[in-house]
Amino acid sequence: MKNYLDLTGRVAVVTGASSGLGREYAKALAENGAKVAVMARRLERLEEVKNEIEAAGGECLPVRLDVTDEAGVVEAVQKVVDHFGKIDILVNNAGSIQVTPSVDLTLADWQQVVDVSLTGYFLMAREVGKNMIENKYGRIINTGSMFGIIAGMQMPNLAYNSTKGAVPNFTRSLAQEWAQYNITVNAIAPGMFPSEMMVVDESVEQLLQFRTPIGRAGKIEELLGQLLLFASENSSYTTGQTIAIDGGWTAV
């Protein structure tokens, strides 16, 4: 039986891969045959991811990176190309959040979120895109958020919500420009998933029971299927799309 999610022979790059969703994305890509470069600021955490992937029989290259550093992005992408020979899949996942009332949000805090969660996506896509265009193949998956589709009234997250709201149009714009090169660009918009950035405590669980049709937080494996589909050759006719995986929150 054919495995439609087989990524054997593909090379993937995952940013924000030292913890949370990024770490799970990297492991899932490796488990399905991809060689994976994991990028984040915390190299010691990346080494842990590398050890997990290699223990399961995969191949992993840890690369320390601050996605807001343009020269660092250029160098990191070149390091992956030098090591693996190409890049087929990019998962833009590095993120930042500031839970602060808007009247108290400093320009520095605003800029930091924008730099990581939007400018960082641009820099990674631009540099990886050069290799993908040359090879006439690519799969780019951007991590958005359901709070890029709806604002929510639970927390004051102006900077986070604004950058995540930009992700769908960033995705559409790249998709239409790069389709001619056999590059698809799609986005995943997660709802509430437990992670280092999102603590799902009893109060959050109560909110989810009230607010979402499915009535609970997400499980990481419920994100991975969509990630793997977007990363595979079998998503070749899907581009420019943002898929909310949120228990139905944005459907209500």
CATH class: Alpha Beta
Rg value:
17 Å
Residue share in β-strands: 15-25%
Q: Please, what is the average pLDDT?
A: 92
Question: How many β-strands, per DSSP?
Answer: 7
The CATH homologous superfamily is called NAD(P)-binding Rossmann-like Domain
CATH architecture: 3-Layer(aba) Sandwich
Poorly predicted runs are none
* Number of helical elements: 7
* Shape, principal axes of CA atoms: globular
Number of domains: 1
Question: Describe the biggest sheet?
Answer: 7 strands, parallel
| Portion of residues within helices | 40-55%
Order of strands in the sheet with most strands: 3-2-1-4-5-6-7
Distance between the termini: 38 Å
H/E element order:
EHEHEHEHEHEHHE
Quote the CATH topology.
Answer: Rossmann fold
Q: How would you characterize the overall build of this protein?
A:
Helix content is 44%, strand content 15%. It is of the alpha/beta class. Strands 3-2-1-4-5-6-7 form a seven-stranded parallel sheet, sandwiched between helices. Strand 4 (89-92), helix 4 and strand 5 (138-143) form a beta-alpha-beta unit.
